[in-house]
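Why does residue order matter? Because the sequence determines the fold. Keep that principle in mind as you read this record.
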Amino acid sequence: MLAAQAAPGEIRLEDFVSREGLRLVGDAALAGRVLRLTPAERRKSGAAWFGEKQPVRSGFETTFRFQLTEEGGACRGADGFAFVLQNSGSAALGGRGSAGGFGVNDPANPKHNGIPWSVAVFFDTCRNVDQGDPSSNYIALRTAGRPAEMRWPAARLAFTSKLTVHLKDRKVHTARIVYQAPVLSVYLDRFAKPVLETAVDLSIVMDREGRAWVGFTASTGDGYQNHDVLSWSFRSANVSSSVAVVSSDITFSLSACLPDRNLCTPERAIVEPRGAGYHIILPANLEWGASIPNQLGRQVAISNAHGIVCWDLEARGSEGCGGPSGTAKPGGAGFLAPDAPAGALISKSNGGQTWFSVNGPTGDGFKNNEGFYEFDVEIK
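Structure:
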């Protein structure tokens, strides 16, 4: 049965005997008790969105069962399906073929737009060598930003080389996706450890209230298969995380981010006089990267601090990413401030200036940090 939304941020669909609560787009349709994103026919694309935007800023967990059948044509079954978060609307639909139903279509069909303001967990079942696909059986985290930034293929933030689980073996598989800011983890079937885990910036998919459209897309090209979702649950806001992130409106223009980073990292620090103090945007990759005049070395007060940074890209989780308060543990030897929490927003005064930095390990590795903190400062 299809269960109604129990509370904001919660979806429970045991099957798909009814389209109540769903918006189906393109070639998506209900087939018996399943949601069929595309039939096993060439050059199709479909999408299904839940009818109300869901809160995602504080984290979420979604689980769904899927099955790929009646494979044929190129790749002996193509092209794959995706779980997508987006801020473009409930009628959004991307291109066919390798576009996955969320990306810009291939150059042969340039008029078919993709879904801007989106992040997709793509279960890819066809290797496109010209796009650098590692195999015909992998998962990728892809993103499409502003409409002017859309390109083909969509940028990969992370991907698996090849899965041990065969996605198109006609069996029912279970996927579980967990977002604990800023880390997104993908689990498959009975795997206790994620098959894919990476930091990701969801700011482009959220509105000012931290909500996004959530749902699925799929596509076929010269290869085809039934892309079926059998059940779906989604839960937000109550996902536990030890990463401290203060929710607030971001005033930094996200168009000025460094390329090839999962978290938006500003190209430079910004220090602006504001009221009796200053407003500062501090990139995580700049060691003591922002300062204000403080000739007398007076105490400074930091307020309204928010943002997410990663200073340990290997750890990824709460041990390597965090908010302005940092982790619960001191940084220790090698950190800018050994006694302060790792990742914390720290300051020091000398030479008539007060300097600000993320508390990370000093040295060449600092330049690889991702993200930024935004805060206000007043000299007492």
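The chain has a mean pLDDT of 87.
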